[in-house]
Amino acid sequence: MYANTETRADDMGTATAEARGHEAPTAQDVAGLADTQYESSLRIEDAQPEARPPTRDGHAFSVASTGVFAWLSPLAMGTLRIPHPAWLIVGVLLLLGLIALCILLARRFSRRGDEAVVEAEAGAEADEHKASESRSAPSDEHAGVRVSDAALTESLLLAPARDVTVNVPTSWQPSLSPVVRPSWGTTPSRQTTAASPQPESKLFLDEDNPDATVRMARTALSTGMPARAAELLTPLLKRTDVSNKTLMAAGGILQDIAIRSDEHGECYGLAADAFARVLELEPQRQALQRRIGQCRLEQARRLSAGPQRSRLFSEAAERLGLAAEAGGADIRLLADLGTAQAQCVALSNDASGPTAYINAVVPLRAAMEAGAEEDSDAAWQLQDILRQQAQSEQGDQGASRHAEASAIIRRALSEGTQAARRPLWQATAIDAAIESMRMKNPNAAARRTRLREIRARFAPIMKGDVAPVLVSAWVELLCTEADGLVGSVAIEKYQEAEARLSDAMRSNHEDLSLAVSASRVARRKAARQAPLARLATLRNAQQRLLKPYANRVASSEALQFERVANTIEQAPLLRMQASREMYAQALEWAEPLAHSPRHEAKAMQYCLDATLALDAVGEHDLMADRLLGRARADAGAMLVVARYFLERGNLAKAAESCEAAWRSGAPKSVLVPLWQNVVDAAASNPVSAAWLDGSCKHLVQARNAEGHVIGVGARRPGRIASGDWGRDARSASVHRAG
């Protein structure tokens, strides 16, 4: 019954609405609707279960329901007029416009807040960078240059930023994020970050704004991302619309990247390029010559041998020289200038010998006179060059240069203030003492006495935990003692050296200098063995000591040199084809080292030795001339040069090399047959008469003199048959190289 009544009421209401359209309901309709609702409520009350006390949620729902029905009741009663649909559309559009305006205003204020944070961080970073530069400046004059550049960078960093935000992810990301420029209509998420370093961040910047790029690079560097900073600035240097002010700031950041991280040495070159562009546009800024020269010097130091390295050292020497001539040369500038000029000499084909280093010595002496510390870089470079010159000269001149170098070393040890570099100076003192003993060319008894004195003098500093560089120098002293001994006594010395190295390598297993020293000991010990045992010892050293560091060969010239020495000593112990391959490999590895100041003499000696073995004489005439001019005090090197010039038919230089080898104490059993071959070949040539008489006179003196041996035991001349002198000369040169 109730259902039929309700259905009818609904049908009646529907029909009435359809008949009247949108007209308001009459009083009768409203009354009928009220009766119907009343009846429905009575039915609902009858169907309700037993009443329960209302809960809190139920009460809230009832209140909300009452409010909704109260709002809808006017509509139901017909007292609320519904607006026309067009007005509804207009209202909705106005509401959407108001919402969009609020969003735009919120974004604008958010951008201003982010820019203020970035500017504050950039200012703090500039102040910190300025303070660090002032602390690390080596001198007052140099500090002035750095501070002015830092101020320039700071002024650029504090300029108003445009479209620059920083989005920092919360988790670590292993790779650097690329530069992202938001497309039109999109807005990147923004999040301000604290000044604490973050592992990774994404930088959003305006690529058309160089100033913004510089600011972001500075932020990346300060947050521990040097690679990202370099990535941002590299494209900037290729653009032509960048101001000089921006280029200076970019160059300063790139130089800081290279100083802070050895993995980014290429940034020295990029910084030099930036400074060079500024100097080209503003020639009056000659102070930039110094910064360009220093960057080129550091860039060249990190390159392997080659034409580019030579060119960079030459440019560094030229620019540093111009900076010194312009005035205001301080200790650091003079030291850098001397270093660059010494490297230029080593990389050149100048065969003038010791005089080639004069230009390098002058600025280093000036640095010491200007007040450089006794253990400064200038002092180190000066003593190193003087010792190289002493090795190239004979007689009083060489002894005088070596004495000056020894005096510098003594002052560094007695008056030096850099405790971290003291082990290096102590090791240098041991090396210099050994060199001084060799230059005096004593007989066997005097040699042993002098070595015992050196050992007693330096024994106290070898107690306790000793630096690896000092261990290497001490091992060299032990091996030098063993070289003058024979039999089991010599073997005991080599074993003592190996034991000392083993102890040091247990606590410094990653130190390259110890591995190089161990390989050197193995080579010298192998020289005392029979051919098969010698080959086994050399191969064992190659596998155990050199190959584990193969991935670090490019960064260590000492390791490169030891690899060459081991290879060229194995070569004569192999069969024909394998021997030629070994010599070819050694020649390939040795040629780049021929321009290394530290190893040039021995590297050139190995190159000539391999050239003779490969019958490729004629390709290294310039190298032979250089070696004759720069290593007259090295008997082994002079023997190889004499052989080379004899094969080339240059008998005058061959005789000159033999005389130099004689004055340097070459083994009589090796020198005399070689020299005799040179004299015999020249006797049939009338042109040789000018020098032949003097050479013959000295040959007779060498033949009548007491047999003198360096590095090997004495041999009877009768053991050397014609045609065998080359092998013995090569063996002697190997002993001297050890």
UniProtKB/TrEMBL annotation:
<feature type="compositionally biased region" description="Basic and acidic residues">
    <location>
        <begin position="126"/>
        <end position="144"/>
    </location>
</feature>
<keyword id="KW-1133">Transmembrane helix</keyword>
<feature type="region of interest" description="Disordered">
    <location>
        <begin position="121"/>
        <end position="145"/>
    </location>
</feature>
<feature type="region of interest" description="Disordered">
    <location>
        <begin position="177"/>
        <end position="206"/>
    </location>
</feature>
<keyword id="KW-0812">Transmembrane</keyword>
<feature type="transmembrane region" description="Helical">
    <location>
        <begin position="86"/>
        <end position="106"/>
    </location>
</feature>
<keyword id="KW-0472">Membrane</keyword>
<feature type="region of interest" description="Disordered">
    <location>
        <begin position="1"/>
        <end position="28"/>
    </location>
</feature>
<protein>
    <recommendedName>
        <fullName>Tetratricopeptide repeat protein</fullName>
    </recommendedName>
</protein>
<feature type="compositionally biased region" description="Polar residues">
    <location>
        <begin position="184"/>
        <end position="199"/>
    </location>
</feature>
